[in-house]
Each structure stands twice: as structure tokens, then as C-alpha cells.
């Protein structure tokens, strides 16, 4: 930190004064003043990060704890991408005396995986942008002065694992009605298992369509403001997937677990399922008992329009029109529309009769907002794995998930998978241990620590982590 302080005193202060002087001469140039200050503060921040990292590496070199098991192999200069910018710093490669393993111990202490060159904050920004726009924009937005490739963003998203829902509330909510809306988006695949495996039918159409499924649960709808004509969902929670078969069953089980953990289902009068009646949606009624299916307005009105669009106001005109359609052999128009309505007859009646608790559905709008806006509104192709991860990432994002928590969860998953549960001693544990070891003299150790210089305290904090190596 000493070098950073010197840089601030010798370089930054004088530059700040010059910037302020220029601003006072030309007050209309406030933008230049702000940008100049930002650039100086940004450079100072990068230097502080660099110095802190190199100080930690020096402490590793000087540590007697480290010397017990690790010897110096080589010194190199590496670049680490942070959200503030790229930081180049010196770090040391060590080799374990007993196992022959080589490692950058500072990376372990920083929680970085082998060959990782991004910090958690940069990776969180990457996901925050990629879930909304594109892989390219995600790579560009991870840092103020650096970027990573689209391929890097894609790899990180493909490797994502998502945390389970947070702990159940102490007391389950009691509501009269719950609503589940379900629909899907049709997205395009680049391939199914490997490139070139998409087949064409006789009409030269490829089997490259994949269903991205959306389910959201809410407690109803309400006005955005007392006098507003716009409405919003009450406590919505989103689920996205592209699973089929057994995966589809697990998808619905995930919805049920969410409902059961947060609501007293015994107090719920009805759970309405608003949908277009698709097969994968109907299967949910077998996984969650007591669902009442209601046909959503969009699909009901769409098919009613298709059934009657050729009819005129007059019944005579309508009869003539029907005869004309029959003569022209357009039976399929009636068959398709009438078959859909007949197969969803009860659900359609519930929608039109407006029974107690039945509210409007907005599945089409939510499919557009949750899935289509990112996955199908523009020409793009997905892999099945990429589509699955992005769909789940969209749900995580819209449910208010913290991207930094998601990044840190990946590290926890990797450590558990590898069985590498490292043990680090904290400064508190070390002091307690020393007090116990020195018995009577030990009671003075804590008071001595309070009089340590700032640099000594830094070493004490850092050495607590070195014990875990």
C-alpha cells in the first residue's frame, strides 16, 4: 500500500488540482472534469490491487509456514481481469516437497481455479450482461478496460450449476388462491448432439426446433398504482427449462416443492393452471394434485377467431359463407379450431364463465419477456446444453438472484466434487491456540496484538490463511 500512497501523493493530487483548475476556468466543461477524475481514480484503484496482490505473494515467499511443505519453483508475471480492469502482477509458482505438486499458492488463497484469469466480480458482471443481451456483450462488460471472448462466456455459462432455493420461511403463507401459468417458446438449435446432425424432411425443413418451457407461480394480479391501468403479478416466481420425459416430471416437482415450502396448501381453495393445454403442461396435473386447468385467453380467442373469421354479421350471410367454404374443401380450418376447443372444453368454459378466483393470464407476454427476448427474438442458434443453462439463468435473474452468489456457488460445487475441503485457521483461532499453549502468559497475547503496526496486522491476517496450505 506504501507505493500506492506515494503514487497518490506524488501523481494524483497534482493531477486533481490541475483538473479542478481547468474546470474553474471552463465550468461548461464539467464532463471533462468528471471523466478526468474517473480516469485518475481508476488508475489508482488498479495500482492498489496490484500492490496488494504482490504484497500477499511476498508474504508467501517469507512465510516459515509455507517453507515446511512448499519450495519456490519460478516467478512469473500474470494478468488478472477484475471488474475495475486488467491487473498485471508478479506471482510465484511453488512445488510441494512431499507430493511434487506445483501450484500458484496465491491463486488458492484468492479462491481462483487453476488457469482462471477472472475474479468473481468480473464473472458476475459477465453473467449479468450475458443473461440480458448476448455472449459478446457479456465478454465486453466484465471489466472496464479488458474483455474476454464469446467462447469464454459460452464455456462459463455451459458449466453453470444453480443453487437450490433458499431456506424455507419459518411460517408458510396462507392465501385463498394460487396461479400457475405455463407456456413455451420455440428456439432454434445449431445441432442436437454434434454439428451436422440436423435432418431435413421432404419440405426441406430441419428438425432444429427446441421447446424452452416457462412456468411461473404467483398469488394473483394487482394494479401497479391505484389509478394505473397497468397490472402486475403478485409475488411471481419463475421456472425455466428445456427438459423432456423424466426431466419434465422433475421440472414440475421443482414447482411443487416451491409451493409446498412457501404456502400452506391446506388453506388454498384452488390452484389454477392457466395454459394453452399442451401435453407437457397437462402432465403437470399428474405431478401436482388438485390443479384446475383454465384455458388462457390468448389461445382461446385465437382459435375462436380462426373458427369464425369467415362468418358475417347476418346468419344468412354466414350460411352462404359456410356453404362456400364447404364447396371449396376447406374442412381443415374447422377441424383444427374445433378440435382444439373440444379437447380443452372444460378449461375453455372456466375461462369464459369467469368463476370465482379465475383471473386473466399473461403467459404470451411473459414468454416474450422471459424467454423470447433473449433466446428467439433475433436470429440465433443454440445447443441443447446452452439453451438449458440460459433458460435457467433467465429464471434465476428474474427471480432476483445475485450473480456474485451464483459465481461463488460454482466454487463450492467444484470443491465438493473434488473432495478438496481445505481447512483455514482464522486469526481468532490462532490467537486462542497461542493463549492456550502459553497458559498464564497467553492472556497477554491479545493485548499485544492490539499494539501491532498496520503492516504486522496484515501479516497476521494473511498468515492465518497460509496455515491451510
Care to describe what's here?
The protein has 469 residues and is of the alpha+beta class. Among the domains are: 127-158, no CATH class; 177-416, no CATH class; 423-469, no CATH class. It has 20 helices and ten strands. The chain is elongated, with a radius of gyration of 31 Å.
Topology:
Blueprint: H1 2-25, H2 30-62, H3 64-67, E1 70-81, E2 86-96, E3 102-103, H4 105-110, H5 120-130, H6 135-141, H7 150-158, E4 177-188, E5 209-218, E6 221-223, E7 231-233, E8 237-241, H8 246-262, E9 270-275, H9 279-282, H10 284-287, E10 291-295, H11 297-308, H12 315-327, H13 331-343, H14 345-353, H15 363-375, H16 384-398, H17 403-418, H18 427-437, H19 445-450, H20 454-466
Helix pairs in contact: 1-2, 5-6, 5-17, 6-7, 11-13, 15-16
Backbone shape:
elongated
Poorly predicted runs of 5 or more residues: 420-427
- In the sheet with the most strands, the strands line up as 8-5-4-9-10
Structural class: alpha+beta
How far apart lie the N and C ends?
25 Å
Largest sheet: 5 strands, mixed
Q: Got a strand count?
A: 10
What order do the helices and strands follow?
HHHEEEHHHHEEEEEHEHHEHHHHHHHHHH
Number of helices: 20
Strand content: 5-15%
Amino acid at each position: 500500500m506504501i507505493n500506492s500512497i506515494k503514487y497518490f501523493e506524488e501523481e494524483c493530487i497534482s493531477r486533481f488540482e490541475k483538473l479542478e483548475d481547468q474546470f474553474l476556468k471552463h465550468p461548461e466543461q464539467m464532463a471533462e472534469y468528471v471523466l478526468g477524475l474517473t480516469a485518475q481514480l481508476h488508475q489508482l484503484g488498479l495500482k492498489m490491487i496490484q500492490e496488494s496482490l504482490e504484497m500477499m505473494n511476498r508474504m508467501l515467499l517469507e512465510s516459515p509456514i509455507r517453507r515446511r511443505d512448499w519450495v519456490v519453483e519460478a516467478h512469473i508475471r500474470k494478468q488478472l481481469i477484475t471488474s475495475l480492469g486488467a491487473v498485471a502482477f508478479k506471482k510465484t509458482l511453488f512445488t510441494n516437497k512431499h507430493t511434487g505438486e506445483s501450484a500458484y499458492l496465491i491463486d488458492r488463497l484468492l479462491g481462483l481455479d487453476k488457469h482462471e484469469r477472472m475474479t468473481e466480480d468480473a464473472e458476475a458482471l459477465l453473467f449479468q450482461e450475458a443473461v440480458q443481451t448476448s455472449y459478446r456483450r457479456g465478454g465486453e462488460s466484465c471489466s472496464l478496460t479488458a474483455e474476454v471472448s464469446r467462447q469464454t462466456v459460452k464455456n462459463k455459462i455451459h458449466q453453470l450449476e444453480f443453487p437450490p432455493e433458499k431456506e424455507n420461511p419459518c411460517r408458510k403463507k396462507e392465501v385463498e388462491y394460487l396461479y400457475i401459468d405455463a407456456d413455451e417458446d420455440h428456439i432454434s438449435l445449431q445441432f442436437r448432439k454434434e454439428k451436422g446432425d440436423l435432418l431435413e424432411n421432404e419440405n426441406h425443413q430441419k428438425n432444429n426446433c427446441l421447446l424452452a418451457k416457462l412456468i411461473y407461480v404467483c398469488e394473483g394480479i394487482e394494479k401497479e398504482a391505484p389509478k394505473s391501468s397497468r397490472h402486475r403479478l403478485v409475488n411471481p416466481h419463475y421456472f425455466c427449462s428445456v427438459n423432456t420425459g423424466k426431466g419434465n416430471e422433475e421440472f414440475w416437482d421443482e414447482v411443487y416443492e416451491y409451493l409446498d415450502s412457501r404456502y400452506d396448501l391446506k388453506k388454498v381453495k384452488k390452484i389454477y393452471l392457466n395454459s394453452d393445454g399442451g401435453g407437457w403442461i397437462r402432465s403437470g396435473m399428474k405431478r401436482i394434485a388438485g390443479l384446475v386447468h383454465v384455458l388462457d385467453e390468448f389461445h382461446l380467442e385465437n382459435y375462436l377467431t380462426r373458427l369464425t373469421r369467415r362468418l358475417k354479421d347476418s346468419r344468412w350471410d354466414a350460411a352462404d359463407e359456410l356453404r362456400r367454404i364447404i364447396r371449396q374443401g376447406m374442412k381443415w380450418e374447422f377441424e383444427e379450431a374445433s378440435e382444439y376447443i373440444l379437447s380443452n372444453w372444460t378449461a375453455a368454459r372456466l375461462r369464459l364463465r369467469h368463476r370465482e378466483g379465475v383471473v386473466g393470464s399473461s403467459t404470451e407476454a411473459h414468454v416474450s419477456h422471459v424467454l423470447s427476448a433473449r433466446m428467439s427474438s433475433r436470429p440465433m442458434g443454440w445447443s441443447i446444453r446452452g439453451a438449458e443453462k440460459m433458460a435457467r439463468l433467465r429464471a434465476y435473474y428474474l427471480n432476483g438472484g445475485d450473480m456474485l452468489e451464483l459465481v461463488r456457488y460454482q466454487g463450492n460445487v467444484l470443491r465438493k466434487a473434488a473432495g478438496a475441503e481445505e481447512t483455514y485457521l482464522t486469526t481468532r483461532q490462532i490467537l486462542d491456540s497461542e493463549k492456550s499453549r502459553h497458559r498464564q502468559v497467553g492472556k497477554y497475547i491479545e493485548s499485544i496484538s492490539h499494539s501491532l503496526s498496520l503492516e504486522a496486522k496484515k501479516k497476521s491476517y494473511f498468515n492465518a490463511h497460509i496455515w491451510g496450505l
